[in-house]
Amino acid sequence: QVQLVESGGGLVQAGGSLRLSCAASGSIFSIAAMSWYRQAPGKQRELVAGMISSSGRTHYSDSAKGRFTISRDNAKNTVYLQMNSLKPEDTGVYYCNFEGPGHENDCWGQGTQVTVPS
Which of 38, 52, 92, 112 has the smallest set of CB atoms within 10 Å of its CB? Predict the structure, then answer.
């Protein structure tokens, strides 16, 4: 299993910025993609950003596009999410996820809370 620890969240006014970090440890192998999900209050968890490990290609949800940037530091086994121009709709618990063969049963981390007041 891969253990994931998210950090960097907090309470930020609209228009502010945060950088989230996800540190991975354990059985890190065959990682095909890395991603960030958000679970807003009363809503399902949704994908907001992803990166293909081999190519570095990135994908973003419509709401994240132009404001969020996913990046990685392979030497530190860490993936980041830079969040700019934050809006109240960005509020939620953010989780990272590593995908690939053998990781289907990996557990979600605790997530990190991002709160943007209206």
Answer: 52
